[in-house]
Amino acid sequence: PVVPGATFRHDFPEGFLFGASTSAFQIEGAVDEGGRGPSIWDTFAEEQDGKLSGGRNEEGIAFYNNLINELLAAGIILVVTLSHWDIPQGLDDEYGGFLSPEITQDFVDFANLCFAEFGDRVKFWITFSGPWSLAYSGYGAGTIAPGRGVSSSAVETFASRHLLPPDLTFCRPYRTRIHRAASGDPGTEPYLVGHHQLLAHAAAVKLYRENYQSTQNGKIGIILQQIWPVPLTDTEEDRAAAQRSIDFMFMDPLYYGDYPDSMKDFLGSRLRTFTSEESQMVKGSYDFIALNYYTATYVRDAPEAANGPPSVITDPRVEYETERDGGGSSWIRVYPAGIQEFMVYVKEKYDNPVIYISENGIDETNDPLLTLWESLTDHWRVSYYQRHLSYLRRAITENGVNVKGYFIWSLTDNFEWGESISSRFGNVYIDYDNGHKRNPKLSAEWFRVQLLNEAALR
Ligand code: PNW
């Protein structure tokens, strides 16, 4: 029986892609293998041994060639993200990573290598996963690598909340303890980091378009993400607050070649300006926009937020009402209609771009008593996907939004950044106590029969 709002592959346009997302640092492990050098996440998650990174890694290239070939042989289309919150530690040590404009050339060199080595088989490229997330969480809240900007008391809370049992020693990052002391400047660094990601993104897109696209015939874009802000009250103030909140996610520069007025007016000299050449390069630097959608939050106008020291956290002058509803991490408030609202907003504001939903998902709560069986029978996760897909379908059929694919987060349980392995987003359960044995959850079966292999049901 088909529950109301159930969605099948055939409910979506011809050629619509369904997939599952993940990211290298979150699933690969292999910290000391295959010529892999340390990344900023090794440092953030635990002390590492100071090995130098950089240069061309033949073992790494061979690894990804094998992976790509295996996936293609299984009939899987690849969408490759070049950098998901992760860069070599060496670049951070040398010039401060994304804090410096030097990151652009290094990123372009890396992108060039990937296009040249893998572009014959990879037809979808994404430069960065959420420049706003890295700027905000890595340099403002300090909750992801490199962990700058946060006050020291917050570091303490964060560290103790995520300590793991000492027996989880099979892979270095899983013994996560966030040990960074507070550093940086949350009022300026996030905007530098955002700016440099936009420039590095645009330069990589330019390279792809000039040197590869006509022969390789791929598409290139960027992931943007924001918790969808719903005005707390239907007043002009709260509506403006919601608009500011979304303004800060860095989409405007990609479309208009400049930051929105709300950012420029309020941030003044804390915001970098684009030269006219840079503006031209950034403007239109995407074939598609990939959007992550997990949740929504109420926002209210909070002018008083401007009174404290400048910080990316308070700069939009909004207060978030994060009252919880549904399962999962405390930040996930289940609001499926938000995916339709978000799509319509992007369609109208940015001239109906091609959109892919690059992540949508929910995790098991960090309850230590959670049993394997409870994880495996994840009806609530299936319901989460189905409800979001229903609203996504409406965005297409009722609003004409040009959405061309939907990817769940995540393929398997993984290293969930600051939550380490205590949070499970996967469709496949990873048994960390039994050699990483994989157990498909109900949601994996749902994905298979309903989205990939519906013919089996009819
Ligand atoms: C995602 N938001 O980030 C990351 O891309 C994944 O690597 C991660 O595993 C996943 O979250 C689950 O935590 C997000 O503002 C950042 O709504 C911000 C938002 C959502 C997801």
Automatic annotation (TrEMBL):
One of the Pfam families matching this protein, by short name: Glyco_hydro_1
Superkingdom in the source lineage: Eukaryota
Gene3D superfamilies given in the database record: Glycosidases
UniProtKB keywords: Glycosidase, Hydrolase
GO biological process terms, semicolon-separated: carbohydrate metabolic process
A GO molecular-function descriptor: beta-glucosidase activity
Family: Belongs to the glycosyl hydrolase 1 family.
Protein's name according to its UniProt entry: Beta-glucosidase
Organism from which the protein derives: Escallonia herrerae
Lineage: Eukaryota, Viridiplantae, Streptophyta, Embryophyta, Tracheophyta
